[in-house]
Amino acid sequence: MLTKAPKGTKDVLPEQSVKWQYIEKTFRDICAGYGMKEIRTPVFEHTELFQRGVGDTTDIVQKEMYTFEDHAGRSISLKPEGTAGVVRSYIENKLYADTKPAKFCYLTPCFRYERPQAGRLREFHQLGVEIFGAESMMADAEVVSLAMDFFETLGVGELELRINSIGCPQCRSEYRQALQDFLRKSYNELCDTCKDRFERNPMRILDCKNPDCKKITEGAPRMIDYLCEECSGAFKELKKNLGAMGIEYTVDPGIVRGLDYYTKTAFEIVTNTIGAQGTVCGGGRYDHLVEELGGPATPGIGFGLGIERLLIVMEATGAFLPKEPETDLFIAFVGGEARLYAQGLARKLRKQGFKVMADVAERNMKGQFKYADRVNARFTAVIGEEEIAENRLTLKNMKTSEQKQISAEELIKELKVSE
C-alpha cells in the first residue's frame, strides 16, 4: 500500500507535466486578456460553506464530499469545486468594496468521492473563472467567449456550446409546482435520493443519473417554458450577445447543472470524442450565492473545467500537446579538474538561458554519452584536462554526429545559432 497511490488519484509524471504547464499557461494568458486576476483559496473549507453554497440536496454534498473533523471537532471538507471558496474569499476579504465587476481566475485541486472513470478522478484539477458584480448578459457572453477562446487557442475542435436558462426563484416557483405534478404519479419509482429531492429541490431529479429516474423525467415540463419576463428577456439578450461575438450555440432545455446556486444562464461545452461523459466545461450565473453565504447582494457568473478531461479531449481530437523540451547541451568530462570546470561552465550557461546538464553520477565517458541521448541533448561538449589547458572543447552535434573544436567563449554563440 505504501507504494500505490490511493484509488482515484493519479501521479502527473514529467512527460505529462509539460502538457499541464502548456494548458495552464494558455489559460492564464487567455484570462489576462479578459482582465482576470488569479486567486488561490485553501484546499479545505468549513463543511457548511459547501452545504449552503453548493447545496445540501446535490449529489456532491450528499454523496461525494471528503468530510472529516479536525482536532478541535470542527467539520472540514476538501473542496469539491472551486466557486464556493472564491465566493467565501470575496466576502471575507471585502473584495466587494473594490472596483466592480471583480474578475477572478483560478487553478485548483478538487476532491469528490465517486467511481473513477476516464477523465473523472477522486482528486482532479479544475480551471475556472468568476465575475462578480455584473448583472448584464454581456458578462455571461464574455465568460462563454473566454471558454471558447481557450479551447480554440488549444486547437480543440468538435465542440458544441449548449445554453439554457433555469430562471430565478420567482419563475421557478411556478415551474416547481408543474414539475412536481408531473413526477407525482411516478414518485414510488424514483430512487431514494430523488424521493428526498421531490420536496426539497425537484429540479435536481432532472439531473439524476439513475436510468429509472432518467426514464421517468422524459417529457417533463421545461423550465424554459416557465421563465418570467425578466429571465426571458435576459435569455434573449444572452443569445444576442453571443451572436454579436460570432459564437454558435444550441439551446438545450435539459441543462440544469449539478449545483443548487445557479440562476438564469446555464451552459455546457460538450464533445462526442470521449463517449457519453461528454461535458468538458460547465458554468452559469449565480445571482444569489454571495448573499446566501453572508455577503452583500452581488450577481455572479462563472465556469469550471477539469484538466484531466481536457487532456483526454485534446488527445482524442489531435490537438497540439508539447513534448518535453530538449536539453541544449550535455557536458561530458574526464578527470577531477574537468568535473569542477564542467560545473562552473554549466552554471554560466544556465544563467544565459540555456538548458544544460552535466553527469552528477560521474559515469565513464560511454555512460555519459548514453545519458546525453536519454535527456535528448542537442549537443554534447567533451572536456578533459588537455582541453582545459588549451581553452577548447569538443562539441558534438547529437543529431548529425558532426564534431568540432571550439573555445568556451564560442560555445554560447554556437548554441544560439543552432536554436
Task: Describe what is shown at a glance.
By secondary structure, the chain is α+β, with helices and mostly antiparallel strands.
Question: Could you please describe the fold and organization of this structure?
Answer:
By secondary structure, this protein is α+β, with helices and mostly antiparallel strands. 40% of the residues lie in helices and 21% in strands. It has 15 helices and 16 strands. It has helices at 14-33, 47-55, 59-64, 83-92, 137-154, 169-184, 192-200, 211-216, 229-244, 289-292, 307-317, 336-351, 365-374, 385-389, 408-417; strands at residues 37-38, 44-46, 67-69, 75-78, 102-111, 123-132, 159-165, 250-251, 263-271, 279-285, 300-306, 327-333, 356-358, 377-383, 393-397, 403-406. Strands 1-5-6-11-10-9-7-8 form an 8-stranded mixed sheet. A 5-stranded mixed sheet has the order 13-12-14-15-16, sandwiched between helices. A 3-stranded antiparallel sheet has the order 2-4-3. The longest helix has 20 residues, at 14-33. It starts with 13 loop residues before the first helix and ends with a helix. The mean pLDDT is 92.
